[in-house]
Amino acid sequence: MSVSTIPAPKLGERLCENGFEHPKILPAIDDAHGGVIVDLNEPMDPQHFATLLRSSLLHWNLKGKHGVWIKLPINLVNLVETAVKEGFWYHHAEPSYLMLVYWIPQTGCTIPINASHRVAVAAIVLNQNKEVLVVQEKRGRFHGIGYWKLPTGVVDAGEEVFAAAIREVKEETGVDTEFVEILAFREVQNSFFGKSDLSFLCMLRPLSVEIKKQELEIEAAQWMPFEEFAVQPLTQKHEPFKYVVELCLANVEEKFYTGFSPRPVSSYFEDQLNYLYMNSNELDKSS
Amino acid sequence: MSVSTIPAPKLGERLCENGFEHPKILPAIDDAHGGVIVDLNEPMDPQHFATLLRSSLLHWNLKGKHGVWIKLPINLVNLVETAVKEGFWYHHAEPSYLMLVYWIPQTGCTIPINASHRVAVAAIVLNQNKEVLVVQEKRGRFHGIGYWKLPTGVVDAGEEVFAAAIREVKEETGVDTEFVEILAFREVQNSFFGKSDLSFLCMLRPLSVEIKKQELEIEAAQWMPFEEFAVQPLTQKHEPFKYVVELCLANVEEKFYTGFSPRPVSSYFEDQLNYLYMNSNELDKSS
Question: What keywords is this UniProt entry annotated with (chains A, B) (predicted)?
Fold first, then answer.
């Protein structure tokens, strides 16, 4: 049902505090790129929302604004259809909200793209007995085939890659670790709904021994002699897994291979501590 | 307006081809994790959708299904409110569709998270005269301050990091390049709406000289003596930019620094060619 079939004045009048008042505009804050952000939280009648939205767009147009962002919490789902009918489209969504966007100018739209990647980690935790920490999962594509795999997991938004590797090992196996370096990474295209995964192979040093496996996702966890891990048929068959073994040996055993390690750097613009991942080993050797 | 105020039987009858027929279930395909995916394309009355959705959820529950995904193209925006009222929440959205999700079992939900990162590239293109390819943008935080910056851009979903670097240089400056390696990368947390950027510093070799700048985003582009680029106040002030200069010199001038370069690897599961980014230089030297 189109909201435009409902007579506008009636609902508009009902919601105006003053019967003679014209519709106001939506509350908005300026963004850093010449646009505005509307962060709605109060319930609203869709027809009143449509009226406000139209007058707001006229207002922002006159002000020379570019992009218009509307963040609708999921409890205001009744306003989504109205925004789309007024020309907005989806930008991104999280479980609790939907972000809609509109571009006012006639010239080319420079609305930035949505997040496109998940970032994942696979953790090599090798102890001094040359045993590697491995798990079997309760679900997923490695389930039920007897393959002992490295602990893996997804980097949360706002989390550093090295912190995610430490966290995932702790969650899945209970083992404390310190981060050493990233040995390699790869992109897996279209891993879910057209998005890609960027997966970092991380080397960590164990700080504890005892295993307490996570119940929800982990079937079994153990310290496994590295040679046994390496000769598993799937490790042999799957080229990226073969490189895990080769890079690990080159790094730990023969000590000629160095990856990227995180180095704290200040950030001029963001006022936060970042980490630059680079071949610190080579850089330091030279100076 | 809540759809539940519309009397259900009337609309239900209207849409059933056979007046005596009970509501069918929504067309769905199984996913690889014990769930189902509904990919709706045909317009539907919200009340009929609600009826179908309820009977479908009962059916999938009996079948022991876990996650239920509903992909709604933006032209079916009139069904979003209904899905949310039936207990669905947002998973992700792209300009053309919204993905909703529901978890049937009583046990812990293992719906994977949405994409959390944008992946960006910054390109160092250095010619044999020790000139670096730099630009000034028409918008953004470097606009209007006279800073000559490296060409940068965002990696599309489904695009390799190295391919994005080559594409962005070509788009912004018209210069053809070949990819050499990734010198470093960093994560910039909360760069937009709580999402993070993962930004790769890429070294490329120019294959052409003539500059044809892109009109929409680029104010100016030039080949600039590397020393001039390095002594710009912002390069000196901003720690990550100082590392750009240091790593570039270590890599090109003094030749002791190596980054990660892409190596094609087959993929056992995905039936696609992946690239593993690693310190190929060190690995090859040893063998």
Answer: Hydrolase, Metal-binding
Kindly indicate the confidence band of residue A167, based on its pLDDT and cuts at 50, 70 and 90: very high
Identify whether A165 is part of a domain: yes
Mean predicted confidence (pLDDT) in A168-185:
97
Decide if A119 and B193 are in contact by the 8 Å CB cutoff.
Answer: no
**Contact residues for A110 (Cβ-Cβ < 8 A; gap 6+):** A33, A66, A67, B139, B216, B217
* A183 vs B contacts (CB less than 8 Å): 278
Residue in chain B closest to A73 (alpha carbons) equals B90
Mutate to test the interface with B, among A156, A196, A286 (most CBs of B within 10 A): A196
Minimal C-alpha gap between B78 and chain A (Å): 6
**pLDDT tens digits along B164-182:** 999 999 999 999 999 999 9
User: Could you give the 3-state DSSP secondary structure of residue B12?
Assistant: helix
Query: How many distinct structural domains can be found in chain B?
Result: 2
Say what angle helices A8-15 and A46-62 make with each other, to 10 degrees: 90
| Pairs across A and B, CB distance < 8 A | 288
> Which has more pLDDT, A168 or A139?
A168
Mutation test of the interface with chain B: which of A33, A107, A193, choosing the one with the most B Cβ atoms within 10 A?
A: A193
Interface confidence, given as ipTM, is 0.82
CATH number assigned to the domain comprising residue A138:
3.90.79.10
In a domain, B198, yes or no: yes
How far CA B20 is from CA of A36, B15, B17, B58, B59, in Å, comes to 52, 12, 9, 20, 20
Question: Percent of chain A scored above 90 by pLDDT?
Answer: 63
Select from B60, B78, B103 the last residue of a domain.
B103
- What is the residue-wise DSSP string for chain A? --GGGS-HHHHHHHH-SSTTPPP-----EE-TTS-EEEE--S---HHHHHHHHHHHHHHHHHTT--EEEEEEEGGGGGGHHHHHHTT-EEEEEETTEEEEEEE-SSSPP-PPPPP-EEEEEEEEEB-TTSEEEEEEESSSTTTTTT--B--EEEEPTT--HHHHHHHHHHHHH---EEEEEEEEEEEEEEEETTEEEEEEEEEEEES-------TTTEEEEEEEEHHHHHHSHHHHHSHHHHHHHHHHIIIIIS-----BEEEEE--TTT-S-EEEEE-HHHHHHH-
Tokens at B14, concatenated: 């209207």
Residue A18 pLDDT > 90, yes or no? Answer: no
* Enclosing domain of residue B235: 117-278
In chain B, the residue whose alpha carbon lies closest to the alpha carbon of A251 is B283
Decide which of A42, A75, A103 is a domain's last residue.
Answer: A103
At residue B132, the pLDDT reads 97
Please tell me which of the candidates A80, A161, A240 has its beta carbon nearest to residue B276.
Answer: A240
Q: Could you tell me if B197 and B151 lie in one domain?
A: yes
CA pair distance A171, A151, nearest whole angstrom: 10
The whole-number average pLDDT for the span B131-151 is 90
